[in-house]
What we know:
By secondary structure, the chain is of the alpha/beta class. Helices cover 34% and strands 27% of the residues.
Amino acid sequence: MKTLWxxxxxxxxxxxLVNFFIAFVIFLLYFTDLFVLKEIKVLNHxxxxxxxxxxxxxxxxxxxxxxxxxxxxxxxxxxxxxxEEVVIAxxxxxxxxxxxxxxxxxxxxxxENKGYLVDRKGVIIGGILPQDYFYYPLIEIRDESxxxxxxxxxxWLKKNKKYLPVxxxxxxxxxxxxxxxxxxxxxxKIYLPLGVTDDLIQLYQHLDRIMVYLYETKLxxxxxxxxxxxxxxxxxxxxxS
Length: 241
């Protein structure tokens, strides 16, 4: 009986110590200035400046680290059309770390003589930077009928580097009612038909075989135009005079 009583007292004391420790930790975290925000670290930003990200958080510094509503901060950051994903972490004792994933640009959309960076769905995600012209082709949409298929095809083309010409070699792409017109950086024009076949990938593979032949025969520098908008399986190649 005495042993049980001793064990009971030990259990009570242990419980009190645990509760005291928890209360002490809560007190340190929420009611002292030991863990206050002194620095915000922004990771993986490119188009968006660190200052712009911090401004979106509406944090001034000095907030208690564990009082900061991370979900609210995430919603604020995602209100920027350039930001697709956000990961926020508290780093004791006084740092808030924000890692962002910016929306990936696909092309520069020319609209009313202005250029806008668009994503894989054709959504405008912001203005353009001077260096964007080195990474993205200009696109012009003259007919909206094939718009969704057009952007889906461009996304596929950007991801598949094994077919020629590769996406990075294009300077301009125009979508018309019945065809796509590509212009390479070495001034070759390529016409791909719309409606001849629904399989644009198969059509591009046909173009790839033509390009391989032109490179192997060292004729590519003499080419002015490649037209694949003929009966499927046929093409016309025009050489520079």
